[in-house]
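INTERNAL AUDIT FORM
Audit reference: QA-55
Scope: verify that the stored structure record matches its stored sequence.
Auditor: D.O.
Record contents follow.
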Amino acid sequence: MWDIRLQSVSKSYAKDAEKAVNDISLHVEEGKLFGLIGPDGAGKTTLFRILTTLILADSGTAQVGGYDVVKDFKVIRNSIGYMPGRFSLYQDLTVKENLRFFATLFNTSIQENYALIEDIYKQIEPFNDRRAGKLSGGMKQKLALCCALIHSPRVLFLDEPTTGVDAVSRKEFWGMLKNLKAKGITIMVSTPYMDEASLCEEIALIQEGNIMSVNTPDEIIDQYPEMLYAIKSKGMNQLLQELRNSELIATANSFGEYHHITLAKQGTKDLLIQALSHREDVELKSVRPTIEDCFINLMSNG
């Protein structure tokens, strides 16, 4: 069974330093598309490096496919694909040379596993003779994914794969991941983009090395404890300060063209409308929380 298991894993990079990951226990089922969601510095990359056998945890145990990341690191390395956050292919090699090189490392060939990468490779094949360093961000992303898949891995680790690419490339990439999941590959992907959480089957919200919640995106949203409202009017910056200074408001955060707010115990929607009657064009409506709303709430109450 090619699942992923972490039990009480901790890691710090210096004596007496804060832990990069702190007592993390996690189970990713075989064949799942699992998201690790959190901002820069949350511990995502450290966790990935432990699972891909690149660094050792200070304490706890981790397994990939039932194999221990310390004792069985050779088996794991031959059975996983890893796409690090920074583009790590050879800039001076062409697209095809990079693919051939990584296939050779695993004693395979492009032809042998072509069926797995075909849909992705067709998009970069016209640039076979172009050096990797000269590719656009989206094309680099596709090449890196092909190289991570060229040996037909059972588990795929993708560390912030959509950072720095355009919105169209991000959408295409998640479409590719769904296709790979349909082929039975277990996929663990990290991202700082909260909107990508809904594209995963299950997610873990991580902050400062701690897992705050693990569940499906919908179930995390359903657990949001308060009625959430969106509000906007003229002078949004001034409105935000006014809301934060009001005794009727528990929380107020800016979300795009609206501010998202929750009401204090003594506050009601009618009282808030009355308190803002001096403002023009006030729009107030109840909304379904986003993963970002849930993340902020968990941070505030953690």
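Auditor finding: record pair retrieved intact. The mean pLDDT is 93.
Action required: none
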